[in-house]
Write a structure and sequence with these properties.
- This protein is mainly alpha-helical and about 350 residues long.
- It has one domain (about 15-290).
- The chain has eleven helices and four strands.
- The protein has a two-stranded antiparallel ribbon. A two-stranded antiparallel ribbon has the order 2-3.
- α5 packs across α7 (about 155-180).
- The chain is globular and about 60 Å long.
- The protein starts with a helix and ends in an 11-residue tail after the last strand.
- The mean pLDDT is about 80.
């Protein structure tokens, strides 16, 4: 696991690429919505991701990532419950009671709620530049979703969507706690669970399965926008923490807007250009952020993929794997030093 400037740069790249792949799902999925209901489509997208990632894990070479352990099951179950069950249910119920404009804008709460949960409960740190970056990116996302139209909204519907965003914020932060494990395994479990739940619920509510061609297209789209995207997002969570990952991932609507404009003929107007400038400014703030101070690492024993950097100087036993990177249980001794860092799982200290 990298804790250097290179690791933070990789985390930023993974987060932005994950957002780009997920952003593509909106305009492409819209092409399929004429033949399949939204919740059924969500189930097919997640299942396509889960099955595709399962195939990749069978075919790929041996991984140096740490496998999921029995003690991870409670956290993984909470991730699935919050992100794959509670969040979608609250969102669907809330969207049925509010206007499209209100619903779109309220869904932007996931980003700031993820940041608040990360800072308040999971010991992450954001300086003024990080908060400014988050504000610019989220403001840009809000500008993109300001569309003409209206409709009535009620308080219970708005509360339900806000609670759905809180469920996803919890999902993001708990996934970050698991991100030292194999991201492919984590995302496969999440995708299969969320896909099965949404598919079964939509069928119970009366939806019908689409043609094999539409099902195949949805599964392929899911593999890219819900599979590869979320795996990259898990790596970003590992390297930069949930708060900064939330800011990077909030650029997803802009990618979808650009794709729709250049490839599907959608109009690109002043709101889209303003959002682009706001988001570019926010990303620049995050990339230029440099957080460095004297800090202390407490003794810690855990397992994850790592190379022998300044944070990983330990002895090896006869059964530990050779080469780098590799994964095995290792002990971190107490260490006091100073270097630029983000709120990865090695840097959860007081400020």
């Amino acid at each position: 696991m990298e804790t250097t400037a290179g690791g933070r740069a990789r985390g930023a790249a993974y987060g932005l690429l994950a957002a780009a792949l997920f952003g593509l799902s909106a305009p492409l999925a819209k092409l399929l919505l004429g033949t399949v209901s939204p919740q059924l489509l969500a189930g097919l997208l997640y299942l396509g991701a889960g099955v595709g990632l399962g195939g990749w894990r069978l075919l790929r070479p041996a991984s140096d990532e740490a496998p999921l352990q029995r003690r991870d099951l409670p956290t993984l179950a909470a991730v699935v419950a919050a992100g794959g069950v509670v969040g979608p249910l609250l969102m669907l119920w809330g969207l049925s009671r509010v206007s499209a404009v209100t619903g779109s804008l309220l869904l932007n709460l996931e980003g700031p709620l993820t940041m608040l949960v990360a800072v308040m409960f999971f010991r992450e740190h954001l300086g003024w530049r990080g908060w400014l970056a988050a504000a610019l990116i989220l403001l840009g996302a809000g500008v993109l979703k300001l569309q003409p139209g209206g409709g009535t909204s009620d308080g219970w519907g708005m509360l339900a969507i806000a609670l759905a965003c809180l469920a996803w914020a919890l999902d993001n932060n708990l996934t970050q706690r698991l991100s030292l494990r194999d991201p492919f395994a984590i995302v496969q479990v999440k995708a299969l669970a969320a896909g099965s739940f949404n598919l079964l619920l939509s069928l119970v509510l009366g939806a019908e399965l689409p043609s094999p061609a539409v099902t195949s297209l949805a599964a392929l789209l899911g593999l890219g926008s819900y599979g590869a995207s979320v795996v990259l997002d898990a790596y970003a969570l590992r390297l930069v923490g949930a708060a900064r990952e939330a800011a990077y991932f909030a650029t997803a609507p802009f990618t979808g807007t650009l794709f729709a404009a250049f490839f599907l003929g959608a109009p690109l107007g002043p709101a889209e250009l303003a959002a682009m400038l706001l988001m570019m400014g926010g990303v620049a703030c995050l990339l230029l952020e440099r957080h460095s101070h004297l800090h202390q690492h407490e003794p810690l024993a855990h397992e994850h993929s790592h190379s022998h950097d300044a944070h990983h100087q330990h002895e090896h036993g006869a059964g530990d794997p050779p080469g780098e990177p590799h994964s095995h249980v290792h002990q971190h001794e107490a260490l006091v030093h100073e270097h630029p860092h983000s709120s990865d799982l090695h840097h959860r200290h007081r400020h």
